[in-house]
Amino acid sequence: MAASAVRWAVAALWLLLGVAAGRSQVRVLSEGTWRELLEGEWMVEFYAPWCPACQNLQPEWESFAEWGEDLEVNIAKVDVTEQPGLSGRFIITALPTIYHCKDGEFRRYQGSRTKTDFINFISDQEWKSVEPVSSWLGPSSVLMSSMSALFQLSMWIRHGHNYFTESLGMPPWGSYAIFALATLFSGLVLGLVMVFLADCLCPSKRTRPPPYPYHKKLAESAEPWKPLEEEAEPRDGDVSKPELEHQAPPVLLPSALRQRAVPPAAAAVEKS
């Protein structure tokens, strides 16, 4: 009885060890857990299940993950087909892509893809010789957050297209028409919202026309009409042309006359 109990205990122990050995040490990151990369040291692989190079890398990556506890580094991976937002956030243009993360600084790994090279990269701190990604291109920046949203939107559009064409049996042109109308409607709504916000934040100055000319004209038009006789009366100093012709020439006074100076020779001739 005791011998059988011992055998059962040994079998259970071996079973637990086998399960622990078969459990992967690689952590799977998603859109909701990627911020864990901002603390501590990480090595992250971006892969796709259909990628042959990614499939060849998996055994080496799993073996490297077994050294994670000794090296005090976290080993993780991201499936870009399931997490398109992270693909845009880290600007993944080739597969597989490996990043080293240390306290919020991100560096792209460009070395050989073997377990030994990965271990040396961490233990010898070879990552210090790699230039980190600039802050405005970092995954937590506003620019990369916008890029992540665009990648997620593209994935939603693809899922919607597949739903319309495969589940509902809609022709492809019908799906394209729906997305075109949705794009036009969203653009119209966005334009109206922007115009409303601009009008609220920066209202236009409505200038009123000056009232002075209108009041002046109104005052002139309100005056009573003057008789024509009053307008025909001559003003002081105004003399018509016929009156000037009948007027007598002016009489010069003796005091106003000027005597001409007569030369002496002319005076002698007159006396003789």
Beta strands, count: 5
* Major pleated sheet: 5 strands, mixed
- Rg, alpha carbons: 51 Å
Q: Strand arrangement, largest sheet?
A: 1-3-2-4-5
Question: Keyphrases for this structure?
Answer:
5 strands, five-stranded mixed beta sheet, disordered N terminus, 272 residues, alpha/beta, flat
Summarize the structure in words:
By secondary structure, the protein is an alpha/beta fold. The protein is 51% helix and 9% strand. It contains eleven helices and five strands. It has helices at 2-22, 52-65, 68-71, 84-89, 115-123, 142-167, 172-201, 212-222, 228-232, 241-246, 264-271, and strands at residues 27-28, 41-47, 74-79, 97-102, 105-108. A five-stranded mixed β-sheet has the order 1-3-2-4-5. Helix 2 packs across helix 5 and helix 6 (142-167) runs antiparallel to helix 7 (172-201). The chain is flat. The termini are far apart.
Task: Explain the layout of strands and helices.
Blueprint lengths: L1 H21 L4 E2 L12 E7 L4 H14 L2 H4 L2 E6 L4 H6 L7 E6 L2 E4 L6 H9 L18 H26 L4 H30 L10 H11 L5 H5 L8 H6 L17 H8 L1
Parallel strand pairs: 1-3, 2-3
Antiparallel strand pairs: 2-4, 4-5
Short description:
51% of the residues lie in helices and 9% in strands.
